[in-house]
Amino acid sequence: MSLDELRERARDWPSRRFSQAISEGDGISVIPVLRGDVAALAAAAEAAGAEAVAVETVDDVRRVRAHTDLPILLRARSADHGTLVAARAEGTDALSLAYEERLAEDELAELQQAAEDLGLDWALEVRDEGQLEEALDGLDPEIVVLSEASSRRDEDDLDRALDLLPSVPVGKLVVSESAVSTRDHVLDLERAGVDAVIVAVPESAAGLADALRDLLDGQA
């Protein structure tokens, strides 16, 4: 399929579904990262009460979109304009990209504009205070992902997210990628003002459902 054909398909999807889901839902949103049989896991995640799901490839977006209407966050390791168009054409609602010093701000700014033009929500993943400050000053993303990929392994993931949170300006949507394992962890993030948390889950439908119900405390 040509890039022009992909652009035409991309126009068929409604805009900003991901940001709406995590900002307008009842309490903090729990977003499972789907790996393995993502199609089966997507259906299980929706049934268990997830308000969005995360995947790591455009192919996974295609498989997931056939089995759920939930917003899909694509966590791309790298991206260019063609990737954004293909992702949107397959039904991606939001794209997150790690803030890396090797990527020039003008490159990231072009990708950010292209994402917005396509109707994609755009998020930047940061792992420390320095990256957060640079990302906010240079790019001002609407959605900030506080990532667990920290160079400070002596710091607890949850503590790091809570430490970084006060530096995020009011009005931004905040997503935490933390090693949460209990409902209390989720509630700590919610009370601090986090809008959503990305969580690792088992690669079986039953295991995913159990894990989400524990974190959501029977909200499903």
Structure, described:
Helices cover 45% and strands 17% of the residues. The longest helix has 14 residues, at 105-118. Helix 3 packs across helix 4 and helix 3 runs parallel beside helix 10. The chain starts with a helix and ends with a helix. It has 220 residues and is α/β, with parallel strands linked by helices. It has an eight-stranded parallel beta sheet, with helices on both faces. The protein has helices spanning 3-10, 17-24, 38-48, 58-65, 81-89, 105-118, 129-138, 157-164, 183-192, 205-216; strands at 29-33, 53-55, 72-76, 94-98, 121-126, 143-146, 173-177, 196-200.
Shape type: globular
What structural category arises from helix and sheet content? Answer: alpha/beta
Radius of gyration: 16 Å
Which strand order do you get reading across the main beta sheet? 1-8-7-6-5-4-3-2
First and last CA, distance: 39 Å
H/E element sequence:
HHEHEHEHEHEHEHEHEH
Work out the helicity level.
40-55%
Give the count of helical stretches: 10
Could you name the ranges where pLDDT drops below 50 across 5 or more consecutive residues? Answer: none
Sketch the major β-sheet. 8 strands, parallel
Mean pLDDT: 85
* DSSP E strands, number: 8
List the helices and strands and how they pair.
Blueprint: H1 3-10, H2 17-24, E1 29-33, H3 38-48, E2 53-55, H4 58-65, E3 72-76, H5 81-89, E4 94-98, H6 105-118, E5 121-126, H7 129-138, E6 143-146, H8 157-164, E7 173-177, H9 183-192, E8 196-200, H10 205-216
Parallel strand pairs: 1-8, 2-3, 3-4, 4-5, 5-6, 6-7, 7-8
Helix pairs in contact: 1-5, 3-4, 3-10, 5-6
